[in-house]
Amino acid sequence: MQTHEVVSGADGTYDFDATVRYELGGMDFLIVVEAKRHKNPIKRELVQVLHQKFQSVGGQKAVLVSTVPFQHGALDFALVHGVALVTVTEGRFTFQTRSSDAAPPPSEVQAHELGLATLVGYAYGRGEQPGSITSTIVSPEYPEYLAGLLLP
């Protein structure tokens, strides 16, 4: 993985936040990654821009990572065009208890003691029902989900 790689495309050069290059079966693959740390949910336009850059450079997969959720239009566009979307959050926010009270998430110290990952991502995909969207937690502890998300 390389951060801030400038990649030449059919219509210019683009500085991606990260790129992943690998060879498989004698073929070269390129994954382009953009990361967003916004205050508001990610709009469709940002996914469209990444998709255009990805097509220009001839990549095999585009990934948009964000610290905030994605708007419905962004999710729809990404699913139709094969752009992977990931929302990153602290692992402590994934901890659930069976209680009628809304307990606060564990502290960072408690999360560490519970063995929760420091950071996790939620990847989005098509749900079983028409128009529905599912999310799956991805983290280094589950490499098969990461591979399914990143490999074209």
Briefly summarize what is shown.
The chain has 152 residues and is an alpha/beta fold. The protein contains four helices and seven strands; from the N terminus they run βββαβαβαββα.
Radius of gyration: 17 Å
Shape, principal axes of CA atoms = globular
**H and E string:** EEEHEHEHEEH
> What's the architecture in CATH terms?
3-Layer(aba) Sandwich
Spatial arrangement of strands, main beta sheet: 1-2-3-4-5-6-7
Report the total helices.
4
Alpha-beta content class: alpha/beta
Averaging pLDDT over every residue, what do you get?
85
Which bin fits the share of residues in helices? 25-40%
Largest sheet: 7 strands, mixed
Instruction: Report the strand count.
Output: 7
Instruction: Please give the domain count.
Output: 1
Beta-strand residue percentage: 35-45%
